[in-house]
Design brief:
The mean pLDDT is about 90. The chain has two domains: about 5-105, D-Maltodextrin-Binding Protein, domain 2; about 130-225, 3-Layer(aba) Sandwich (D-Maltodextrin-Binding Protein, domain 2). By secondary structure, it is of the alpha/beta class. The protein has helices at about 5-25, 45-60, 75-85, 100-105, 145-150, 165-180, 190-200, 210-215, and strands at about 35-40, 65-70, 90-95, 130-135, 155-160, 180-185, 205-210, 220-225. It is built from eight helices and eight strands; from the N terminus they run H-E-H-E-H-E-H-E-H-E-H-E-H-E-H-E.
Length: about 250
């Protein structure tokens, strides 16, 4: 982790600490029980990593017990419902992602929580695009080669971190714009998704850079492109999917 990243995390933890303290009722001691950071995905994924780094730093800042609680399942609905129904006393925080707050309201007719009314945003913890990666055994080295390979081998397994996630919707957008046929294989979370990529159970996926980069460096996975409209500042030599062969693509 770079010095800049550490400083940003310290600022975020400071904002969280102040928000928690000011949110607590003035007549009561705070904190009076462990603070929970609820994560809508299994251990090992990027949200879980963010929660554990923040939890550790927040615990030191407040000198109090901060617990990371993983509540995966139902595209983040289980975790979101838990936090929405928790007492509004500053002891339960949600590592909320795009799925629970932005995607689910468009996919489900009825949710057990209101993404606007039931939550009070504190701060942005992290942001970033996904990266198109393949198992290194797949004989492709570019987006155009991948498209040609899928057209020659329709139904190629393409994994995601669950139905309705950005990984899944990014896949569907790629399928539509590239005009290819793939088989969607959903997993419980990013950790399981990357394991499936490494084992060869699936051949292609969109994953967050922290999950993919260690395996790209060991040549077990091959990095083809970034999903956003602009190149990544971390890896500026990696093209976007749009400029690499799928015009208009932006996830």
């Amino acid at each position: 982790m770079s010095t800049l990243q550490r400083n940003v995390l310290r600022l975020i933890c400071g904002a969280l600490a102040l928000a928690i303290l000011f949110a607590a009722p003035g007549a009561r001691a705070f904190p009076e029980k462990p603070i929970r950071l609820v994560v809508p995905q299994p251990p090992g994924g990027v949200p879980d990593t963010i929660a554990r780094v923040l939890g550790n730093m927040l615990s030191k800042r407040l000198d109090w017990n901060v617990v990371v609680e993983n509540r995966p399942g139902a595209a983040g609905i289980l975790a979101a419902e838990l936090v929405a129904k928790a007492p509004p006393d500053g002891h339960t925080l949600f590592i909320a992602d795009y799925g629970a707050l932005a995607i689910n309201p468009s996919l489900y007719a009825k949710l057990p929580y209101d993404p606007v009314k039931d939550f009070a945003p504190v701060t942005l913890a992290a942001s970033g695009g996904l990266f198109l990666v393949t198992n290194a055994a797949l004989p492709v080295h570019s987006v155009k080669e991948l498209i040609a390979y899928i057209k020659a081998n329709p139904g190629l397994p393409f994994g995601s971190a669950g139905n309705g996630t950005l990984h899944h919707l990014g896949l569907e957008l790629f399928r539509l714009l590239a005009g290819v046929k793939v088989t969607h294989v959903p997993y419980k979370g990013a950790a399981q998704l990357v394991s499936a990529l490494l084992s060869g159970d699936i051949s292609v996926s969109l994953v967050a850079l922290p999950s993919a980069l260690p395996h790209v460096k060991t040549s077990k996975l091959r990095l083809l492109a970034v999903s956003e409209a602009k190149r990544s500042a971390t890896l500026p030599d990696v093209p976007t999917i749009a400029e690499a062969g799928v015009p208009g693509y932006d996830t």
